[in-house]
Amino acid sequence: MGEEPSLIEICFHGRGGQGAVTAANILASAALKDGNIGVQAFPFFGAERRGAPVRAFARISDREINLRSEIYNPDIVVVLDESIIGLVDVIGGLKENGAIVINTTKRPDDFDFSKRFKVATVDATAIAIENDLLVGGIPVVNTPILGSIPRVLDRVTLDSIKQAIKERWSGDLGERNAKATEEAFKRTEVSE
């Protein structure tokens, strides 16, 4: 019988300004609330401009994490902007039996790699617009997409993610972000 691996590594792919780094930080905070002893969240620094492809990472473990490198073989990939799939090899290094969460209007089986990996899809952009999560008129999809993660990872709960969001943003903004996260959880489709 296989034991669940202690260390779960997650790679976020997005564009500058979409909140990939913030999403990784919120996920790590939520994982800590769920009793995971080791958590890390960190960005990959490259072209730091709005709209450029960016990466951020999170590690979650039930033990202390001493690893300090970039993540090369993630268990889960989160794609905040579907258009980068053609620009960046988002599934490169994804572990066998890995999962990919995509902000898209497509269904999981619409992606060729759904035969090799678990695919979860959600229209986080529409959810961001519905909840008025806009910066400069552009939908911010990082909190909605976080709602999809508990659908592919049982080490972090929706309630902890919502709590971490409300700690980051108070009042109405925190409530709207938490509501968007819950909507995404409900609307996420996961491949068989």
Structural class: alpha/beta
CATH fourth-tier homologous superfamily: Pyruvate-ferredoxin oxidoreductase, PFOR, domain III
**Biggest sheet details:** 7 strands, mixed
The top-level CATH class is Alpha Beta
Key terms for this structure?
single chain, 192 residues, alpha/beta, Pyruvate-ferredoxin Oxidoreductase, domain 3, 7-stranded mixed beta sheet, two-stranded antiparallel sheet, 9 strands
Description of the structure:
With 192 residues, the protein is α/β, with parallel strands linked by helices. The chain has one domain (8-190): Pyruvate-ferredoxin Oxidoreductase, domain 3. The protein has helices spanning 20-33, 124-130, 142-146, 158-168, 171-187, and strands spanning 8-15, 38-44, 53-61, 76-79, 99-103, 118-122, 134-135, 138-139, 189-190. Strands 2-3-1-4-5-6-9 form a seven-stranded mixed β-sheet. Strands 7-8 form a two-stranded antiparallel sheet. Helix 1 packs across helix 4 (158-168) and helix 2 (124-130) runs antiparallel to helix 5 (171-187). It is globular, with a radius of gyration of 15 Å. The relative contact order is 0.18.
